Amino acid sequence: MSEALAPRVVRRALGVTAAALLLTGLGTATLLHWRALAALDRTLLSAAEAHTVPHEEPHELDQDGLPRTTPVAFLAPGHPAWAWRTEVDGSPVAVLRQADGVRYLLVDVAARYGPAVAAPLPSRWVVAWAPQVTLATSVGPFAVAYSVLSVVVLAAAAAGLGPLITTALRPLRDATGEVARVVDLSDGTRVREDGPAEIRSLLAAVNALLDRLDRAFSAQARFTADAAHELRTPVAALLGRIEVTLRRPRDDAGYQAALASLHADATHLSQLVAALLDLARLEAGGRPEGHATSLLALARTALDRERDALDRAGVRVQVHDDADAPVRADEALALSALSNLLRNVARHAPGSALDLRVRATGDRAALFLDDDGPGIPEPERERVFERFAHGGTRREGLGLGLSLAREIARRHGGDCTLDASPSGGTRVVWSLPAFS
Length: 436
Hints:
Number of strands: 13
Distance between the termini: 54 Å
Structural class: alpha+beta
Largest sheet: 6 strands, antiparallel
Radius of gyration: 47 Å
CATH topology of the largest domain: Heat Shock Protein 90
Shape: elongated
């Protein structure tokens, strides 16, 4: 079972707070320790300077004539000078070593104050030392106080974050209740877009999703009802012809005629099923993936597929191959669209002359099909693109060809339109984006 959001947010907020306190404490402790070391080095340098440079105010000296505050000594000539170079207040010095709780600071008198100051001294090197600054002395009091304060802050945060986050998440709970209230897509009920900006944008996205689901549900219901209605007719016709054929014996010529009629019905039914499957494939996916291909080559392939149907209808086809244009298309879907367009000419413009040509217009490649048949009146040109619509009063065909051709073109980013042909019939323009 998944955990509620509020406890997880509280835990993560406490974790972030603890990490921030820890980093702040470490940074502050590092700074305090560094400043303590810098102060000690400045003290050591000041002590060494008191024995090399005359001062107006006398220093308090011990029995050996050295300052009482910080031990200082001159190195014997030839002593190894330093272990590594460093600087204190911009002065080149050398830390000889730091061990046994003592920090030693070696000063190059000649480099810092000049040869004139170093000349009267026993050696050009003077070393000062003092107890080492430890983390306990530099950071200890701060660490104790900061730890106690951090515990108090985390406890207060743990006590206050729970109610605060629960209150902040109340609009989300209200939004959940709003979404749960929408139980039926068909009645148009949508969630109220109230609350903070983030919740309103979420609810707006939910409403947009509900709208798309509503449209998809309606389209599916309409498509199922239309498909069932359209399939019922050819199936009933096929069964009726079979029953008539089986009622009495026939001679070979009679059976040949009956089989030819049954074959025509079965072909009609097969084409309807194929068109329905293509539509379902389009509706199940988004924009189809395609490959670069020739639009004229696609048209010739579709023409070869429908050659028998066009010949039976007496359609005379002339292909103008003076122009071509490459396109990116799913070949199977594109051939289905073009085959349906050619089949449409065979059914509705039998005996006509069909001109087929390709033109490139800007960023589009278009296939033009011009026939000299009866044509389609302008008020009917958009209606025939509806699914299961039939032009005029004739009921030949599936009522899906033009709808399928347009849907395939638009899924590729193109379109399919009807216009009047220069020869007096119908012009079909099927276009896709040109491939470059």
